[in-house]
C-alpha cells in the first residue's frame, strides 16, 4: 500500500518545522520507501508496517505538541510493489505521447 500523510502539530506556534522533523525522522529510519515534499510524506509497504510508522510519527510529534492533526490518504492495492515509482513512470509515459 501507499500512504500519503501530513502531520500538523497544534498549539506550538507558527514554526512547526522542528516538530514535523521529528515525524520525518521516524519515517526515514523505518527503512520503507518514502518521499517527503512541502505538503505530505508518502510511504510504501505492507498495511501493518506502514500504519505502525504513521502511528510512531504522530507519537513523536505528540511528545512536543499538545494536539496533533493527521491527514491520511491510502492506495490499498495488494500485490503491487514499487508503486510510488511505477505510478510516476506511467504518468510520464502518457505525458510524452
Automatic annotation (TrEMBL):
<dbReference type="InterPro" id="IPR029756">
    <property type="entry name" value="MTH1187/YkoF-like"/>
</dbReference>
<protein>
    <submittedName>
        <fullName>MTH1187 family thiamine-binding protein</fullName>
    </submittedName>
</protein>
<dbReference type="InterPro" id="IPR051614">
    <property type="entry name" value="UPF0045_domain"/>
</dbReference>
<feature type="domain" description="Thiamine-binding protein">
    <location>
        <begin position="3"/>
        <end position="92"/>
    </location>
</feature>
<dbReference type="Pfam" id="PF01910">
    <property type="entry name" value="Thiamine_BP"/>
</dbReference>
<dbReference type="InterPro" id="IPR002767">
    <property type="entry name" value="Thiamine_BP"/>
</dbReference>
<dbReference type="GO" id="GO:0005829">
    <property type="term" value="C:cytosol"/>
</dbReference>
<comment type="similarity">
    <text>Belongs to the UPF0045 family.</text>
</comment>
Amino acid at each position: 500500500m501507499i500512504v500519503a500523510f501530513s502531520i500538523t502539530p497544534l498549539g506550538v506556534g507558527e514554526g512547526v518545522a522542528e516538530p514535523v522533523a521529528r515525524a520525518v525522522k521516524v519515517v526515514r529510519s523505518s527503512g520503507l520507501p518514502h518521499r517527503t515534499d512541502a505538503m505530505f510524506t508518502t510511504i510504501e509497504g505492507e498495511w501493518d508496517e506502514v500504519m505502525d510508522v504513521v502511528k510512531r510519527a504522530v507519537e513523536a510529534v505528540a511528545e512536543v505538541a499538545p494536539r496533533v492533526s493527521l491527514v491520511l490518504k491510502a492506495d490499498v492495492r495488494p500485490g503491487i510493489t514499487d508503486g510510488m515509482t511505477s505510478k510516476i513512470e506511467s504518468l510520464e509515459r502518457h505525458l510524452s505521447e
